[in-house]
Amino acid sequence: MSHGTSHLVTNIGELVTWAEGRPVLKGAAMVLDGPKVAWVGPAARAPAADTAYDAGGRAVIPGFVDSHSHLVFAGDRSEEFAARMAGESYAAGGIRTTVRATRAATDEQLTSQVARLVHEMRRQGTTTLEIKSGYGLSTLDEARSLAVARQFTEETTFLGAHVVPEGIEPDDYVALVTGQMLERSVPHARWIDVFCETGAFDVDQARTVLKAGIAAGLKPRMHANQLGHGPGVGLACELGLTAVDHCTYLSGDDVAALRDSGTRATLLPGVEFSTRQPYPDARMLIDAGVGVAIASDCNPGSCFTSSIPFCMALAVREMGMTPTEALEAATRGGAAALDRTDVGGLAPGMSADFAILDAPTHLHLAYRPGVPLVSETWLAGRRT
Ligand code: NIG
Ligand code: FE
Questions:
Q1: 86, 270, 336, 349: most buried by Cβ count inside 10 Å?
Q2: What is the pTM of this model?
């Protein structure tokens, strides 16, 4: 069925589709039917369309799928970053600084902050993104954080279990997160998340939070093994999560559990960059048969970048990934981490979400780090 106007994008120097058998095409064209991709193939064999657009020999890639961000916040922690770069270490406790500022902000202030960051992401080629709550940490402030996030994406995540806020005992807080706070957050959320780490929530609390979320109809995901070894990744695999995020410190058993459960490891190299932690070993994970994704983790504390190309360049330089693996992890991998098959590739029937690069090939994304190569971002068949 036609969705309306069809567009031919032709003279594509290189088209990354991830389609079975021919993941990368040279000299390609793509036809869009309304918001969807209708056809991809050699430019010389492209069917007619209502309009034509010349890509000028540039590369076209699927839009990035950023499966992990914390955009709903107020305040600034650049001093904390500077102190870290002067030798202090990162601790989960910094989250409470942002909680104070976020609670004091109006819905309008939070919305305009998210809008600014989403715009920043779009300019850098991100077309699908997940946004978490987690800086409200009260029933009212978590629910309104999620309502703000929902204006920008369907992929919203309730992260009431980010840290225990000031003024409440841990057991009482877990009861609140799994009770009234969950109930008020569910209408605005698709996912539930927990920060399972020393200084945040232990593995039993994490299991309690995720099970309550599942019972309420949310899909579970996790922050685990970011700051040190621990049982978080094991729990993620035991519960059969779609993805577990960070995975910076993994034991041999964790890697085997990820491989056997099919739980995807979402790597967030901007965090290691901004906290001076060791990078996770993506090469070892891929060679072990573990699916990986790359996401930004854009947040005011551990990593304030919105740039997926930057994260990809780090993954290539510091984590042993090839440039093509890094692009796949930031597109199809991110989609898989969000349990989505309609985005993250450019095959017929998928959403027409893509970036046109000022470059002849996707290899330039890691080859030319720090250079703004995304010249156009198209979302559901429209240039943004
Ligand atoms: O993903 N790990 C927990 N949460 C964030 C950091 C939050 C903060 O420092 O404000 C993260 O790194
Ligand atoms: Fe995070």
A1: 270
A2: 0.97
